[in-house]
Design goal:
Strand content: 15-25%
Keywords: FAD, Flavoprotein, Oxidoreductase
Largest sheet: 4 strands, mixed
Family: Belongs to the acyl-CoA dehydrogenase family.
Organism: Streptomyces rubiginosohelvolus
Order of helices and strands: HHHHHHEEEEEEEEHHEEHHHH
Number of strands: 10
Structural class: alpha+beta
Shape: globular
Radius of gyration: 21 Å
Pfam family, one: Acyl-CoA_dh_N
Cofactor: FAD
Distance between the termini: 35 Å
């Protein structure tokens, strides 16, 4: 399909990323898969390549490009190769927007140079055991010390992507009790140094998919957080969390579209090589019809993902549009990847084939960043229902 979303600079970046993946990721990816995470020094390589600094201002060592299109290229190229960059996606997609939106000049000087280089990896700790999507129900607390120099953090978080390797984690905690008329009041955000005393990483969670992305439980026991590490204003954290949801949901939508496109590519290559009953699987009419139907769905998902990308870069992507893009693209990916695995037959169930890993990785897209049911609620509300 003809696309207008990328220009020559993006395509040159694509060639760089494709070559990097072929040289630095594909040869060792099976080792990462078995280990359940990418090695920490890989993130330094991403920093050297400039990936973490694309949207960081030049004064802090970045490229100062205010666009998500380079991220989109990375989504497409990692999916195309059947690999991932570990837990680094949350570093840029979740960590950076909060720093850019909330950090003071002093905080940016402290944080952004190491953010861009990969020396300091960031994660976001929002979800707690037992609360799930109910962020306002969180129990983690941060109490200001009597001398006013620091907060004392206590509580636990779970499902924290990038949590094993993170050097700083944006922790959401209660600094005040909820109000009777506003249970969202009283939440604050802190950039917590993971080397702090009382901070601990619990289990590295054993997930169905996304095996190379480290996901962990975190615990805080009387962790001292300097007041200089409060992000934004006290008690206004819930509002800050909401402002970044559109870009997060765009990222999930675009990643899901890229996975669906990759699945069609994997299936097409497989059926052209695989022979049954004396002829290739690709020569059967059912195969042609299945792949044609999948390609049509991918084309539609690409258009939706591209439109959301343009709106995001223009600062115009609404909550309802982001929800619609996420719902559509993740549901398309679910259908397409399932059908493409079917075309692989028994081999599609083997983890040595990228379609099997893709099938497992894709399942969480309809859960995290807001479930499909939550997306439908947001869309319905925007319709006046």
């Amino acid at each position: 399909m003809r696309r207008t979303v990328f220009n020559e600079d993006h395509e040159a970046f694509r060639e760089t990323i494709r070559a990097f993946i072929a040289a630095e990721v594909v040869p060792v990816y099976d080792e990462w898969f078995a280990a359940g995470q990418a090695p920490r020094d890989f993130y330094l390589k991403l920093g050297e390549l400039g990936i973490f600094g694309i949207e960081v201002d030049e004064e802090y060592g970045g490229a100062g490009i205010d666009s998500h299109k380079y991220e989109a290229v990375i989504y497409e190229e990692t999916a195309r190769a059947g690999v991932s960059f570990g837990g680094s996606g949350v570093h840029t997609l979740l960590g950076l927007p909060y720093i850019k939106m909330l950090a003071t000049d002093e905080q940016k000087k402290r944080w952004l140079p190491k953010f861009a280089s990969g020396e300091e990896m960031w994660a976001l700790a929002m979800t707690e055991p037992g609360t799930g999507s109910d962020v306002a129900g969180m129990k983690t607390t941060a109490k200001l010390s009597e001398d006013g120099t620091h907060y004392v953090l206590n509580g636990a978080k779970t499902f924290i992507t990038g949590g094993v390797h993170a050097d700083r984690v944006i922790v959401c905690a209660r600094t005040a009790a909820p109000r009777e008329d506003d249970r969202r009041f009283g939440i604050s955000l802190f950039a917590v140094d993971t080397k702090s005393e009382g901070y601990s990483v619990g289990r590295k969670l054993d997930k169905l998919g996304l095996k190379v992305s480290d996901t962990a439980e975190l615990a805080f026991v009387d962790v001292k957080v300097p007041v200089e590490d409060l992000m934004g204003e006290e008690n206004k954290g819930f509002g800050y969390l909401g402002t970044n949801l559109a870009s997060e949901r765009w990222g999930i939508a675009f990643g899901a579209y890229a996975q669906a496109a990759a699945a069609v590519r994997f299936a097409k290559e497989y059926v052209q090589d695989r022979t049954v009953f004396g002829k290739t699987v690709a020569s059967f009419q059912n195969t042609k019809f299945e792949l044609a139907a999948c390609q049509a769905e991918v084309d539609a998902a690409q258009a939706v993902a591209d439109r959301a990308l343009e709106a995001l870069d223009a600062g115009e992507l609404t909550a309802a549009e982001a929800a619609s893009a996420k719902l559509f693209c993740t549901e398309v990916a679910h259908r397409v990847i399932d059908r493409c695995l079917q075309l692989h037959g028994g081999y599609g169930f083997m983890n040595e084939y990228p379609i099997a890993r893709l099938y497992a990785d894709n399942r969480v897209n309809r859960i995290y960043g807001g479930t499909s049911e939550v997306m439908k609620s947001i869309i319905a509300k925007s319709m006046g229902l």
